[in-house]
Design a protein that fits this description.
The protein is 73% helix and 0% strand. The chain has one domain. The protein is mainly alpha-helical.
C-alpha cells in the first residue's frame, strides 16, 4: 500500500472532507495564480514569470513534505503551490 498524506495523517472518518477541501482550495489557487502571474507575464515577460513560478513551486513542494502533519499549514501551501502550477505549463521562448 502506498503512503499518502491522507493515510499518514488519518484524514478519514471525521476528517474525511479534508481531501476534498484540499482539492477545492487548490482550484481556487489556480484561479488566483492565473490572474496574478498572467499580469506579471504581461508586464515583465514570460520568461521571468515562468522561472519565478517554477522556483516557487519547487520550494513549496519541498516544504510541504516536512509540514504535512499540520493540516492548516499544508492547506495554505497547497493553495500556494496551485497558484504557480498552471503558469509553469507555458514554456518560455
Amino acid at each position: 500500500m502506498k503512503s499518502t498524506a491522507v493515510t499518514d495523517n488519518d484524514w478519514v472518518c471525521e476528517h474525511g472532507t479534508r481531501a476534498t477541501d484540499l482539492f477545492t482550495l487548490g482550484v481556487v489557487g489556480i484561479i488566483v495564480g492565473v490572474a496574478v502571474f498572467s499580469t506579471i507575464a504581461d508586464y515583465k515577460g514570460r520568461k521571468p514569470s515562468f522561472f519565478l513560478c517554477a522556483f516557487l513551486m519547487i520550494a513549496i513542494s519541498i516544504i510541504t513534505v516536512f509540514i504535512s502533519h499540520s493540516y492548516p499549514a499544508y492547506l495554505a501551501l497547497k493553495v500556494s503551490h496551485s497558484r504557480f502550477h498552471k503558469h509553469t505549463k507555458l514554456v518560455p521562448k
